[in-house]
Amino acid sequence: MIIEINNLKKVYAGRTVVDITDLKFHAGETIGLVGNNGAGKTTLFRMLLDLIRPDGGEILSKSLNVASSDQWKAYTASYLDEGFLIDYLTPEEYFIFIGSLHNMSLAHVTDYLQQYMEFFNGEILNSGKYIRDFSKGNQNKIGIAAALMQNPELLVLDEPFANLDPTTQIRLKALVKNLKVTHSVTTLISSHDLNHVTDVCDRIILMEKGRIIKDILTNENTLQELEAYFSEKTV
Amino acid sequence: MLFTFLGHQWIAFTRSRGKNTNIVVQVIMGLAILYLLACAVAAGVFMGKILPAAFPNKDVIVVFNGLILYYFVLEFLSRLQLQELPTLSVVPYLHLNIPKKKIVGFLNIRALFSAFNLIPVFIFFPFCLMNISGKLGVSVALMYLLSILSLSVFNNYLALYVKRISMVNMIFVATGLFLLSALGLLEYFKVFSIAAVSNTVFSHIAVFPALALVFPVLAAVIFMVNSRYLSNNLYAEELSSGEKRKSSTDYPFLDRFGEVGALAAVEIKLILRNKRSKSTVSKGLLFVFYGFLFYKTQFLDKNQFLMMIFAAVFMTGNMVMLYGQFMFGWQSAEFDGILTSRISIKTFIKAKFLLFTLSSTVLTLVVSLYGFISWKILLIQFAAYLYSVGIASVMVLYMATRNYKGIDLSKGSSFNFQGVGATSMIMGLPVLLTPLAIYGLVNYLSNPFWGLAALGLIGLAGLFTRNYWVDILVKEFNKRKHKIAEGFREK
Known about the structure:
Chain A is an alpha/beta fold. Helix content of chain A is 36%, strand content 26%. Chain A has a domain at 1-75 and 154-165 and 188-235: Rossmann fold (3-Layer(aba) Sandwich), CATH 3.40.50.300. The N and C termini of chain A lie far apart (39 Å).
């Protein structure tokens, strides 16, 4: 078990946005988090990454509370939004900087980036632009590649498919599936795209107003089940 | 349509974040503006008395005539530095069904809403009405008014035009700077005098009032040039920044400091590559000329160092104070990324110290040139340097852990109060007053040189116990990091 969440609670202005009594993620699982806006997905991720202080409960990463220890940072990589990028650097500078935090040499980083040439589609490296001048989709790619480069055991991605072109979406899915097999990485993905989530993830967690209302292992009926839930919501 | 635009601008102004949240800042801003306006009005109303007192042997009118163009040359330079281009505000309208002409018209009108256009009215109009009309006649006085108003408008649009062009073309800026400094040198060596030219021009106007009509014509010409340029280049992309290839850079010198050095290198890039930080730091550099104001031989001879310490602390530590004032808000945009990355907070804090130490060291070396005035200055500045590095930096970072306001790096720094919170407002006081208090006390008890020694020793003590302070800062940071991150996320 890599993540254990106990009685986690977060309240904003009297409204409970996250309320999870008990939730466990096992090593090597690929978990998809789905739910409409305001379900609490991003807030949960932020608490998992110690960016927001929970109003109650705790999140244990390898049995250590993320709020009181820094250990989890060594094996956790994440990309939630552009707030994770240092936007006045060039992509190369950013990758080298992130690499240096994980004791990767320049050669190491360059080598790593080689394997993502396809993923970058020739638009990211040697572009002569600062990160802030890239499109949202390309910023997304930079963030995701930087997260993967850290060789994490736990990978947290918030809406990774948003803003990506179809080719890259398919490549990203292949990457995540591959990481599970080769490095048994635990991946947490939130997404509004039910097709993608059910395709990549072997476990789906459905949230509504901060609570977990479904926690299912993916099978051939999952997509229909989720579609049924979300179409009922609209009525 | 024009009024709709102006209405939107007004709404944008009143609803902008940071303006309606911080009443203290608003009040202080308001007082500062009132003070400046009051100064301008006073200068204008009493000019008839001030000029004869300042130049007793000259004719008042001659002095006044000389002053006019001189003022507008200086005003032009300040406009280049301070006046903001009102361009980005039109981006949301460009794709709508609004004719280009109207948008350009709006930009032109919007540009007139600047304090710069008000000040000459206050400074020059009273004198024209009270003195010129009495001595030279009402029609001449009216022509003076017309000339001054036109010059102000001319300056307004010329400054904006130059700013717009210079964003695209660096060579233009370089030539302009060269010409201006050449003019300044000529003026300095009395080869050429703006005042004399100004006096010639306006004494001719006194004789042939119709000559003044040349100024409105000039203003109209530059207005048209500016409008044409705008309507030909009304693309958000071209109005903002030039498309220059950006390259990766490296500071090998910082490599020896390991991870701390890497973080400091990133922060140096932050400063150099963003508008707000760049203008804050480059304006800070102007303070190295403070010495010319404060280092006076009569005080040096009498060993009265108090005000000189103030200047020395400000010069050696201006980066600590001016840049440190908004710490850690500079990094608000990527703050979540920093918190989740593998950087330990200790390293993060140490990198700030490295940055401060480097900047103060460089600044101290530069201002050592004042040593040519007196060796005592070197002592004062060295004590101030130790204080800036050892004590001021700790104070600044301690207060930074209580700053929850992010900085928008893409805006200029002049009159920009975004990100100003209670901490950044009061921060300067303890940092500047502490050295004065230390020196003042020891000077009172023994003598001025022991006062300097005490200041230096206290700074040195801070430097040697730095690890202790780093630990305290880390603790303070961890206590409030969620609140800081939350504040920074609010854009």
